[in-house]
Design a protein that fits this description.
alpha/beta, Rossmann fold, seven-stranded parallel sheet, 9 helices, 7 strands, about 15% strand
Amino acid sequence: MIQIDLTGQVAVVTGGSSGIGLATAELFLRAGASVAICGRDSERLAQAEASLEAQFPDAQLLAVQCDVLDAADVNAFAKAVQNRFGRSDMLVNNAGQGRVSTFADTTDEAWREELDLKYFSVMRPTRAFLPMLCDAAGDGKSDSKSTGKGNAAIVCVNSLLALQPEPHMVATSSARAGVLSLTKSLAAELAPQRIRVNSILIGIVESGQWRRRFETQAAPGQSWEDWTGELARKKNIPLGRFGRPEEAAQALFYLATNLSSYTTGSHIDVSGGNARHV
């Protein structure tokens, strides 16, 4: 296993109170980084903070309640990170869930909500943290290869729907495709400032939402493994199971750190082989 020391670096994870975001925060802390997470739900955020502190009692951790669609909230979060850590080296934009709807039953309001969530959950944190990322990109220019300093990266959690739309998720698929284009554009614009921008495209990953569906839809006595395995087969996922949050987190970690120092404007497919495009 490749080891990397992130001591002295700061990772920011939006939507860090559960699932992929929480698993990503754990990886950063394990590698020695200082970590700032945010989430909308104060109770869930407190639980996540307590869990991380129990695992990493000596870690530098900041948890701030924040709605990434609220510009004032995001700016306050960035200011809190600046005041606590004085810098930000890595930003993981991780927010939003899928909307099940067809073109026929998606209202104008639903379209606006979906586009607002998918775009601004990336744009607002990126704007707020960009000055600190620019500063981080300028650190250690003469020795970035050996020290790991000078790394500045943005990674977005996106969906396979960006390249492989589903008719029952028309609004989400369309918005996800737009975010993929946005990520590519940001990568080109920020490359001269030595800031890398990449994304991951996830398929079905275990989450609280899927757990709730399991509780209401599973047959009596059916296990989580059997229920998800059956669903994975129905959805033609070659690996025959759902992804785990930590598997998506490992891809995010790779793209956020100098392990991927020559990668920008790209994406990693984390869908269990479900992608049908070449």
